[in-house]
Design a protein that fits this description.
Thiol Ester Dehydrase, Chain A, five-stranded antiparallel β-sheet, elongated, 140 residues, homotetramer, two-stranded antiparallel sheet, alpha+beta
């Protein structure tokens, strides 16, 4: 897996508001979709559905922050880059950026905790995740 | 319960597209929200969540059709009216209309089947639903 | 352009409801996304954004109907097929189907009218659309 | 206008994911809806639609951060509280919290800049906004 994983978003007419740019609330949703695609690529199954129902754990979000740098429009695909930045005892942090035509549109940080599926009970990072993710870590 | 149940939708900036009107895909979503609010009112619990997890059945949609009569904007609340139109052995049909400022914006028909929760297995209309809904039925 | 254009949808965790299948309201939204991708392919610009702001017309929906045949899950990509079925003086109709793992999940019919951008005024099908779409028409 | 404005969200079946709780990406969307409702209450018109098309300015978001404290479910309405926390030369910051059954579910901070409608050009806070908002400011 590359250190920086990219996921492409098709920005449509219905994603834009009357100011003719993507409505702000779509942007964290796209960042989450990119993070889910990252898990899909890492684990080889359908994202959080695979994590929850096949592997028996989950990674709910406890924090997100985003800076919006430039408007997003349907004129170009939005290329989201996902990089894991920190792996704690039972947490993982990601940096996600989104660009159109090589120009930065947003950047954000996201923190998730590891839990047992179907509970709110924290658990340690699964060993197979730790070994796969450690080489991918990059400073925030 | 009134024969015609109404549910109010707040149309926001983010619901509108660059043509300055509600994006079409939001309209079936609002009709479904109105039908869920109808169940909530009928049964006294939180909609399909209550139906699935407290009562043990479900009502997945098998058909929908909508005619769009006039654009929807944030200038007025959208008033959705839900009327059950037919109760079969294991199905229910609804008519839903949406109006702004007393002018019809959309009208639609929806058909759901009754299943056991967590399965695709059809079941008969629960007797308490049949007795509560029969007096509310109105021709489509 | 092939007679049957396909557009792939990534079904994610957030698209699913507590019954572990795609929430019904996402399905018409995906069908619309597939129709917009069809326009994008036909015209070579970013969908309805291109149509409205570069070409000066629009194609609002006046009717949709959908039959839901099987649940949709994140286990497979959803392959949507878009076929134009009728071209009137100032309208176009589409058939859209969605399949997962070669099994039909939904099928639907959609009708749009041609208008001048920024108005509700009907206009004739643009000649370049008529000539490009006529060879693609297939019976509903 | 009260110092702390509240806006109620109906959490539905379709807002929840297979973990039976509201999908994370809905939460910033609800916070934005609450902020738009705050503007609606302050200005007496339909939110950002009124701001953009009647008043001629806009307030795009440049930053958001959220901490997720407890899961959100359809069992209760989600009560969002919006408080302006800072008014700069051409910016405004808000604190938004969301609670269910008196228990905190999320808290967040949001920053918007004032622009001329239809542009990316910054402008000063409109005087009528400054005079209406200054008495409402509360520490973050």
């Amino acid at each position: 897996m590359p250190k920086s994983f990219t996921h492409e978003i098709r920005v449509g007419w219905g994603d834009c508001d009357p100011a003719r740019i993507a409505y702000t609330a779509n942007i964290p949703a796209w960042a989450l979709e990119a993070i889910e695609a990252w898990w899909e690529h890492l684990l080889g199954g359908p994202g959080w559905y695979h994590v929850e129902f096949d592997l028996g754990w989950g990674t709910p979000f406890v924090h997100m922050e985003l800076d919006f740098r430039a408007p997003i429009t349907p004129r170009h695909r939005l290329i989201c880059t996902v990089t894991p930045t920190r792996l704690g005892t039972s947490s993982i942090a990601f940096r996600v950026t989104g660009s159109q035509a090589d120009s930065l549109c947003f950047e954000g940080g996201f923190v998730c905790v590891f839990i047992r599926a179907g509970s709110l009970e924290k658990r340690a990072v699964p060993p197979e995740v730790r070994s796969a993710v450690t080489p991918l870590l990059a400073p925030a």
